[in-house]
Amino acid sequence: MITALVAGLMAGYGIAVPVGAVGAYLVALTAQTSLRTGVFAALGVATADGLYALIAVLGGAALAAALSPVTLPLRRGSALVLFALAAWGAVTAIRRYRSRPDGTTAELGAFGAVRAYLGLWAMTMMNPLTVLYFMALVLGRQGAAAPARAAEAVFILAVFVASASWQLALAGSGAILGRVLTGSHGQLITAVVSSVLIGSLALHLLIAAW
Q1: Residue-range definition of the domain harbouring residue 42
Q2: pLDDT of residue 192
Q3: Model's pTM, two decimal places?
């Protein structure tokens, strides 16, 4: 059980700690909205990581082989989604800046929090790095003895907890950033920088896919 716990925590932090487009988007989203929205978004990311861990536990070499042919289309599709998110983030920030020049911020409410959860969940599920990471995990597990059901459950839960703790830390940093950049100019700059970063990562991903 301890081995499964440690392995799950290592796997969860291993995929969560490198801050890529998802992490950058999470920080920017929280800075522009609220900590509540950021928490929902962070849990969306962790849910996707936990789901992939579940797939890795229940799947096997056949699953990895089935995923291999769609890796390239997934990379291209993910790049296009990231481009769309970058454009949407920049346009939304400019519109918000024009409509609220006094620096006030609109709270997204319950629907916005749920939308943030689903959006970050979908964004993480389409992230090819996450797919490749857990594909390798699937293959790596094939050489080990089959663990008990309880150990498998501990592994999956540990992946979720590790990912959630890191994503919540990112959301917290976004909330702090949002308090520092309370003015309309600061929020606009944050959103544009985030969009540029996400767009750059998408371009790099698209080039690598071709």
Answers
A1: 2-72+106-181
A2: 76
A3: 0.68
